[in-house]
Each structure stands twice: as structure tokens, then as C-alpha cells.
Amino acid sequence: MIKGFAEAVYKKYDGTAYDLMNEALEKALNMAGIQRSDIQGFITTFLPGIFDGNIFLHFFPDQLCGYLGINPKYIDSLDYGGPSVLAGLYRAEKLIKYEGLDNILLLFGGKGSLVRQTRETVDSYENLYDGVTNTPYKQLLSGYSYKNPLSDYALVAQRHKKIYGTADEDRARLMVKQRKNGNDSGYSMFTGDISVDDVLSSPVISSPLHLLEIVYPVDGFHAFIVSKSPGKLRPVKIKKYGEAHWSKLPPELEEIMITPASESSRNFRDEIKHCDAYELYDSFSITVILQLEDTGIIKKGEFGKFIEKTDISSSGDMPLNTGGGSINRGQPAYMSGSVLLYESLLQLNGMAKNQVRDINSVFINGIGGWSRNHSVSMILGD
Amino acid sequence: MNEMEIYSIYKDYFANSMLPYIKCKNCDYSFYYPRNRCPQCGSDKIEIKKSSGTGEIYSYTVFNNSIWAIVSFPEGFRLYMNIDSAGEPDVGKKIKIKFIDGRPYGSC
């Protein structure tokens, strides 16, 4: 169960990633009512470039424990990109149940602004350094003009447009509705009403994706404390869980429009349909569409109809990305998993400004890593 | 064949304006990105073959005035490449391979 959760998110933070991480931890400890010495487990992730611009830190999780002044009995780092924190929550519950540990700290984030300033993306960061390779196939990939993950999702969106007729307007409509949720949430970084025309007249960054359907990497950390008891909070736990890892380059996938979410959600499709809210990874507009399809919520090719008729606000027929998603919150350190989990916990604990009424379960899906190789699907509830 | 040998043969193919790929003799799987064993069945009975060099656009994106694409080849493999903007790109459109600085590009 989650005893404390907190975020420290800034568009551009002037201090170090270490300061920022301590801010999130301190807030979460306060909510949980525990001390640093009570932390028995620690799970994090490292993404090159996001820790004060470091491409590498020797024994990363250990360095963080030393800096924070915690002495866990269990230390781990998960390397699944965006959904890492969700996989961390699952592992934390197992450590509590089977290893008898208590107070597992999930600490995820970094400074996206530092990579942003280099005009590289998180996956093309290797171009700045000699002797750094992100993939065994670098010899055959470098020198071309790609900027993953942006180009990668643009390829998917383009093919989706051609094969399923998903129009630019359909994706834009999702962005308009998510912005409305962001406005209502009271903690969105990007606010103000936008129209379908605003999205479509924003610059095309990598066709067919426009600026307003692409997440903005920001500086921030989230801290979640997973414990035997929920403390002052609702006893929220994972009700259903699946993860899938498809370690393939997109050209070697049978079909780039199908993601590992189709596998991670496979065992509880019916339950997914009956959740009270949905928080789906939104690195790009198309990412949300892929997960709606792959988790069985809609059929491929039906997104246009779906988004036109569905009210995704917290009082609507299908509350979706109720906090506005990371498209509006900002994406701390290029990974949105924590944004989804944080909003889910606000909603389940009745702490949201735009509260979903009578909410007992939230479906969360995270997707990420190199291209779209990892997916975590879960239903949170009590 | 080890990985370095594969890259060296690929380089020779490129220098002669030919597009190589790898075919597994055990399971028939075709792939482009070099491994010394078949990623499908694990066999080391692999051979490097010459592709026809005529493929079709699987998907593409226009970014920074260049076109980035995944291209499918009839021999059963796909790869990433830039394609030139002489013609209007589209999913399903035929492309021909050309070589610039020892690197394959598509032309549509």
C-alpha cells in the first residue's frame, strides 16, 4: 500500500537533480509520517543525460542512497524507461509480502531541461559523445536524421493515419480534451483552453505530429513510499498486473502499430473495461491511441469516432488522463510513469481538484524504453 | 561468421552499391541489423545475401527537411533509412536504393 507520495516538478529547476530529488523525498516522508531511517528498500532508474547532464554515474542507485542518507536492505534500478516506476511499485509490493520489508522508496526523475538545451533527444544523446553507443547497431543507424523517440512515434502516427484513417483532427481532439482536464486539475504546467485549430496550426515537428501533441521534458522527481500499512491514506494496492518486454528494433517488429501493451493487458481485458478512471501514457497523442487499442478499450480504426463522442473529463463517461496527462503536466526526465501514478493516487485518495466521484479503481498503462519495447498494465484500487 | 566479419562484408556490399541482408538457413528468417546468430531461432547457419534494392515505404516522417523512413524489402526484412525528397513520399510507395558515402538511402 502507498503511505506517502509527492512530486517536485519545475519547467526549469535552477538547482541540481540531487536537490530536486531530496525535495520530493522530504514531502513524501512527511505524508507517510516516517523517517529516512525507516526506509528499507530503494528502487530507481537511470536514463543517460538526466542526472545533471551525466551520461553515466558509477553504481548509480548506491550513489543516490549515499546522498539521501538512507540505508536500505534492498537496492534496485529498473531500466524500462517510462513505465519503470510502475514495475517498481509491483516489485515493492512483492518485497513487502514475501521478504518482510517495509517502506520501499520509489524515487524517479531528473532534469529534462539539460538534455533539452543540447537540442538532442534523450535517445539521440549519444551523438554528443564519442565512445558512447546506445545500441549495438549504431554503425548502421548513425549519420541519419532520426531523433527518437520523436521520429519513432511519428512513423507510427503516419502509418496509423494511412492504414486506419486516424486523422490529424482526431489526435488534435484528444489534445484539446486532455488540456481541459489539465486546466481543471489545478496543477497542470500548460494551461488555457486550446482548440483543434490551435493544435493543427502549431508547427509540425515530425510529420504528422504537431508541437501541441508532443510531451515537453521538464525537471522533476516523484517519490512514492510503499508500506505494509497505508498510514493516513486509502489502502491502495495493485489489483491486476501485467508487464511485457518486446526487445526489438521497430523495423523488425511484425507491425509497428502494435505495442507490448497488447500482451501486458491480455489477462484482464474485461476488468479494464470496468475501471472508474484511465491514466494512459501520453508521450505523444498517438501513444494514448495505441494503448486504447492494444488494451482492448477500443478497436483499431475506431479512435476518431471514440474521441468525438466520449467525455474524458473527471465527470464524463470515461475519465481519461484526468490530470491532463504529462502532455500538460510536463514530462519529468523524459519518463511519464510517475505522472500517471501520482494522478491515480490523487484520485483514489479523494485529493484531486477535479475529483472523479465514487472512484474505486484506476487502470494505468505505461509504455516506453528504447522505442516502445516495454509496457506495464495495472489496475490500482483497494 | 562473427559480428565484425558481418560488418566488414556489409561495408564491401555498400562500397559496391549493393544492399546486403542476412538469411538464416535454418529457419528462413531474414534480417538486416547484424547478429552472428539468428535472433529468431539462435542458429549460426546464416548467410549474407544481396537484396534486389527495390523496396516500399512502410512508414515515413518529415523532420528537419529530411525524410526518415522504415522501408520493407521483398526478401522479408525492413530497415531504417533517409529517403530523398525528389518525389512525394507515401506509405506503400516504391523506392530504389542508392548509396551516398557508403550508406544506403532511398529514392522515391
UniProtKB/TrEMBL annotation, chain A:
Gene Ontology molecular functions: acyltransferase activity, transferring groups other than amino-acyl groups
InterPro entries the UniProt entry points to: Thiolase-like, Thiolase_C_2
GO BP: isoprenoid biosynthetic process
Transmembrane region(s): none
Domain (Thiolase C-terminal) ranges: 242-381
Keywords attached to this entry: Isoprene biosynthesis, Transferase
PANTHER family: ACETYL-COA C-ACETYLTRANSFERASE, LIPID-TRANSFER PROTEIN, PUTATIVE-RELATED
Name the record gives this protein: Acetyl-CoA acetyltransferase
UniProtKB/TrEMBL annotation, chain B:
InterPro entries: ChsH2_Znr, NA-bd_OB-fold, Thioester_dehydratase-like
Pfam family, one: zf-ChsH2
Domain ChsH2 rubredoxin-like zinc ribbon: from-to ranges: 20-47
Entry-linked PANTHER family: BLR3430 PROTEIN
Protein name: ChsH2 rubredoxin-like zinc ribbon domain-containing protein
